[in-house]
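A student in our group prepared the protein record below, which I am reviewing. Thanks in advance; the entry in question is below.
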Amino acid sequence: MPLLSKLKSELFKALAHPIRIEILELLTEGELCVCHIYEDLEQSQSNVSQHLSKLKNAQLVEARKDGLQVYYSLKDEKVIEIIGLSKEILLSQIDEARESLTKE
């Protein structure tokens, strides 16, 4: 398997969880403290930290420490494009399904 295909697969694996998608969507608005992320998502701190770790390992987010607080941000703004394109694809699929159902 070509290396680039393997790397793409790893990227999509990192994106393959609803909580990680929600974290990335929150971070599209800017840097956030991990404490705000888990509160906004109504998830435990340990759960959110595990997901942030996977996103960080995939180099999708970066962290900086300020005292006892850890702040996360998107490492590359192109992640916003990936999320936006996936939404467009899904909305198109929903429209097609809706049209198909109304024809029956």
In short: The first strand starts at residue 32 and ends at 33. The beta strands are 32-33, 61-66, 69-74. Residues 39 and 88 are 28 Å apart (CA to CA). Helices lie at 3-14, 18-27, 34-41, 45-57, 78-103.
